[in-house]
Specification:
alpha/beta; Rossmann fold; 287 residues; disulfide bond; Cutinase
Length: 287
């Protein structure tokens, strides 16, 4: 029953968002300076629960800030001193994705509706870029999500799968993580996402229906970083429910751990994440 209600909410929000594309989609793309050109690829980030908004410059495009601070750190480092990707726009979800805060989402069991709004926003912004690029414009999409935003871009990749436009997905603190799934890295790589627990999912207003579909999508490059004891992606009795492991992704001194039980490397998480994202963007432009 919960799955059906969540599915209905998703459908309703997607329909509502599709009505906005015709009126505001092209204008949104023009604000990013696309100027009617069709980019080879587009990067679409989705922020975490309640993340603040601040506009940023990435290559030749300026975002509206709805990527949030963590993904802003990643994107700024990725685009810095790399002219080869300067023309690949970063197009956020915009305000259409609610990204409800943890207190609000918990109190109102509204995470499912918020995620649905994010999926609709990802699709709407992708369609806006395509429309601005003219007839036949179908750029490859690289989706990046943190926390609740990870759930958003996972679901968006599934929704866009019939179009075959999503090239890669990058996740941080994924609340739907499958233990040791393809592309899962970090000291918490064997952890299970909090929204894989039926009771927690029910209390949060989200559904576990089709949760494995993401891992079955063909031709999709996946990378997901999970910290040890992160209560979102490494949920269990030993999780740090103060949430500290969930708040320290890409910190300057945070060394990269390839997998649970392995020693840290000499590279930082940010260095590895930047190299991975640059590779995903380069791969998308070649497809």
């Amino acid at each position: 029953m919960v799955g059906k209600r969540w599915g209905a909410a998703l459908a309703a929000v997607v329909v509502a968002a599709s009505g906005l594309i015709a009126t505001s989609g092209s204008a949104g793309a023009d604000v990013l300076g696309l100027g009617g050109s069709c980019p080879a690829a587009v990067v679409i980030p989705a922020r975490g629960s309640g993340d603040p908004v601040a506009s940023q410059q990435y290559g030749n495009s300026r975002s509206d800030g709805y990527e949030g601070p963590l993904l802003s750190t990643l994107l700024a480092a990725t685009y810095r001193d790399d002219p080869s990707i300067a023309s690949i726009p970063v197009v956020t979800t915009g305000p259409g994705y609610r990204a409800v805060s943890v207190p609000e989402g918990t109190a109102n069991r509204s995470f499912g509706i918020s995620i649905a709004s994010g999926v609709a926003a990802v699709i709407a912004r992708y369609d806006a870029v395509s429309a601005a690029g003219g007839f036949g414009c179908r750029p490859k999409a690289v989706l990046v999500g943190y926390s609740q935003g990870a759930a958003v871009v996972r679901a968006a990749a599934i929704a866009l799968a019939p179009r075959r436009v999503v090239s890669a997905v990058m996740l941080f603190g994924d609340p739907r993580q499958r233990p040791s799934a393809p592309g899962v890295v970090g000291a918490g790589s064997t952890g299970s996402g909090v929204w894989r627990d039926e009771g927690v999912a029910l209390a949060s207003g989200v559904s576990t229906v089709g949760i494995e579909t993401y891992y079955q999508l063909p031709g999709l490059q996946r990378w997901a970083l999970c910290h040890d004891r992160d209560p979102l992606c490494d949920f269990g009795p030993d999780a740090d429910f103060a949430g500290d492991p969930h708040k320290t992704y890409l910190q300057p001194d945070q060394l990269f751990v390839p997998a649970a039980g392995q020693a840290p490397t000499s590279q930082t998480e940010l260095q590895v994440a930047v190299a991975t994202l640059r590779g995903f963007i380069a791969g998308a432009t070649r497809r």
